[in-house]
Structure prediction request, 120 residues.
Amino acid sequence: MSKKVRVAIIGVGNCASSLVQGVEYYKHADPGDFVPGLMHVTLGGYHISDIEFSAAFDIDREKVGYVEHILASGCGMVNCMPVFIARERYWQQRFEQHGLPVIGDDIKSQVGATVRRDLQ
Prediction:
């Protein structure tokens, strides 16, 4: 049985488009390859090709609090918003309290400065 990371996208805009295109473009990358804009081809034993997009929802600019809803739903977060979440100690602690991973914060920079939190 193959392992997959099922991903739902909240907010279908330019950042989400970059994520989907990048996953598709690099899904056959060898772990030893240099991949511009990506620090690692594998992370925690998962390869880029293990990412499976299962749903996408658009949002309204009047709506706020999508990170709180992620925590309440018991999901991990890959931040592709142009807003820092994973590097902020407040959000790190909130995800740790829920036993959930949070990763990202650099999709807008395109230079690969992702913050990674390992939860034991």
Observations:
- Strands lie at 5-10, 42-43, 46-47, 51-57, 77-79, 102-104, 115-116.
